[in-house]
Write a structure and sequence with these properties.
157 residues; alpha+beta; Nuclear Transport Factor 2, Chain: A; two-stranded antiparallel ribbon; 3 helices
């Protein structure tokens, strides 16, 4: 268990926009306590699994039922794993030449012992670093059954 004096602390990721280059962008998230840290790490781990196109790994960092609120206001609710599939990743790659997604920023808006609101922005890229789309978002990450996972994603992509 972390101590109060361990906080605030920075969680840092290095985002590789183009796989034609070794250049990386540093993204810092400041957390004030252990539950913010666990929630932010769940979000980061989800994105890492997403970039591997691994729906089963993504499921480790998602809570069910899982809700996504899309740009047009439509809601997708998934009651049980998996809300993503290999076909989803294949289609995204085929239609837009998606290769990976990078964090632009992450910021904890509100937090409690069992729920945080994470304001964020991510960008989807092609292999060469060409931007496909940028999306501001708010993710609600909850602690259920002893683990942190993304419960609701409100996205603009």
């Amino acid at each position: 268990m972390s101590k109060k004096e361990d906080y605030p602390k920075e969680i840092i990721t290095y985002e590789r926009v183009s796989y034609d280059s070794e250049e990386k962008v540093k993204v810092i998230t400041v957390v004030k306590n252990e539950y913010e840290e666990k929630a932010v790490l769940a979000a980061i781990n989800f994105m890492n699994a997403f970039n591997k196109s691994d729906p089963h790994e993504c499921d480790k960092y998602v809570q069910y039922p899982h809700i996504a609120i899309l740009t047009n206001g439509n809601i997708i609710s998934t009651e049980k794993p998996s809300f993503l599939s290999k076909k989803y990743f294949e289609a995204m790659s085929k239609v837009s030449e998606w290769h990976h997604t990078c964090w632009d920023n992450r910021h904890v808006l509100h937090s409690g012992k069992n729920k945080i609101h994470l304001e964020l922005q991510f960008t989807r890229y092609k292999y060469d670093g060409t931007k496909i789309a940028t999306s501001p978002a708010i993710w609600i990450i909850t602690n259920q059954n002893g683990y942190w996972g993304i419960k609701i994603r409100s996205i603009y992509v």
